Amino acid sequence: MKPTTARDGGPVTPEAQHLHLSRRTLLRHLAATGFSGAALATLPLVGRAAVSAQQPKPGGDLRWALDMEPDTLDPHVSSSRYDYQFEKEIFDSLVVRDAKGNVVPHLAEKWESNATGTEWTFTLKQGVKFQDGTPFNAAAAKFSFDRIVNPATKSEQAVFNLGPYDHTEVLDDHTIKIVLKSTFAPLLIGLAEYTMGMVSPTAVQKYGQDFGRHPVGTGPFAFKEWVAKDHITLVKNPNYDWAPSIFTHNGPPYLDSVTGRFISESETAYAALQTGLVDVLQTVPDIHVSEVKSSNQFALLSTTVQGFPPSLLFNCQKAPTDDPMVRQALMHAIDRNAIIEAVYDGSQLPAQGIWGESSPFFWPGSTGLYPLDPKKAASLLDGAGWVKNGSQRAKNGQPMSLVYLTLPGQIQGIAEYVQAQFKEMGIKLDILVEDNPAQQQDAQKGVQHIVWLNWLLADPYGLDTVFGSENIGTGWNFAHYKNPTVDELLKEGVQTLDQAKRIQIYQQVQKQVLTDAACFPINYRTRNWGLAKKVHGFTVGPDGEWAHLYDVWLS
To answer: In terms of CB atoms within 10 Å, which end of the chain has fewer, N or C?
Structure first.
C-alpha cells in the first residue's frame, strides 16, 4: 500500500513569539497575504464568546484554513494529504474504519471472502445515488475499480490499495466480486482509504481529465466551486441518507456548506482563527499550542497520526554509514527530546519505534533501544576506526564528513540541530536543502548519508514502501536498505490472513530494521487542531490526520 504524501514540514515561523495583534495591524497582516478587503471588513473582534447549545442546529458555513491548495479532487489520482480532506466529504467508499480502526460497512452492507482471500464478494446498499443523480450500483463500483487500475488514470496511491487486483465481476445489480491474482491481506483496510471513493461514471465520462476539478461522488457534501489560490466550497447533499454507523445521525449533514481557504503562512492562519475569519485551523503553530489549550474561546484537539513516524533514514550503502556500528553510534548521539523541544516547542511526543505504540503491531522491544548515550556513541565510533584527533574524527587520514538531505521549512531545523549534536562528537555534517522533486530524486540516487522521512500508513504492509529492497533507487527506500530476511517477512505479511501471525511478522520486521540501525525515529506526529467554540461534533478518524464533517454543526 503506497501511503499518502506526508513528508512535508510546516513553514518556519518567522517570529518566535505569540501574536497579540491590534485589529488594524491584523488587517494589514492578512491583507498582505491576499485576503480581499470585503472579507477583511467583516472580521469580528477577538474574544467573542461562543454560544452553547444542546441539540444540533442545522445550517451555516464551516470555514476551514487549509495549509495548502490541493492538487486535485480526484481520489483515484491523488496521493497528497492536502487533497484528502475534501475528497472524503465528496466521496464514499465501500467500507470505513471506526474510532478503534475496525473496518465497518458503508456503501457495502456485508462481504465475505474465499479461504485464500483471493475472491471477495460485496453486497451493496440499495437506493444510493451519486450527486448528479446517477445510480450507485454494481456496475458503478466495477467502473471505479477498473478506473483505478487503468494505467491511463495514473493513480498514485489508490492502485496500491487494491494490491494484486485482477478484475471485478458484476454478479447482480447490487453484488460484486473482486478477484485478486494472489492473497492480499490488507485489502479491506485498503478499501477504507479515502482514495477508494466511488466516482460517478457519468461525470467521469463527461469531464474526462478534468474530473478532478469537477468531482462527483455519493458523499454528504457536493462540490460547488474551486477558485484557484483562494478557496474550495462544498455544499450539503440534500439527498444523503446512507451514513455509516460511525456517525451519530443519518440524513443530510447539518452544515449547509464548507469553505476551505488556502492559507499557507502559519501565523496568518492562526490570526484568522483568532479573529473569526475561520472556524477550524488544521495545524496550530507549535508556539501557540499552549495558548489555544488554555483559551476559553477556542478548543484544542490533539491527534496522533498513524503509521511510520518522522524518522531519520541512514544510507546503508554509502560509506561511512554503510557500517552498522557507525549507524548505531549516530543513533546514540542524537537527542530526540532536545530536537522536539527546540524544533516543535515540545508539542510532539518522542517516538519509541517505527510504528505507533497504541497499535498491536508495535514491537515492544523498540522502547529504549537507542537511548541518548554520547559515551557509547564515542566508543562505537572508536571501535569502527573513526578516532577523534583534536575536534575532528578521522579514519586512515580521512575526516568523518556526512551529508544530511532535507526539505526546507520546519524540518530543516531538525537537520541543524543534528548538525550541532554531531559537531560535539567530532563529526562534520553538511546540510543539503532541496525542494521536491529534486530532494526525492537525490534521495533515490543516494547522494546523502541521512534524510528525513514520514509516511501515513493504515497498515504495516506499507513498511515495504520504506524498507523493501525493490524500492531502492526508484521508490521511497531512501535508506537504500536491503535485508533478505526483511524482504521475505514483508512478502509473508501480505499473504498471511491470520491477524495474530501478521502481528508477529511485522514485529519481526521492526526488530530487524532497528537492530540494523537503518533509521532513527524522532517523534510521533501530533496534529493540533484549533476550533472555534461554536464548532460541535468535530471528530477525527483513527488515522489522526483527517476530520469528519458530517456530524459537525455550528451554534
So the answer is: C
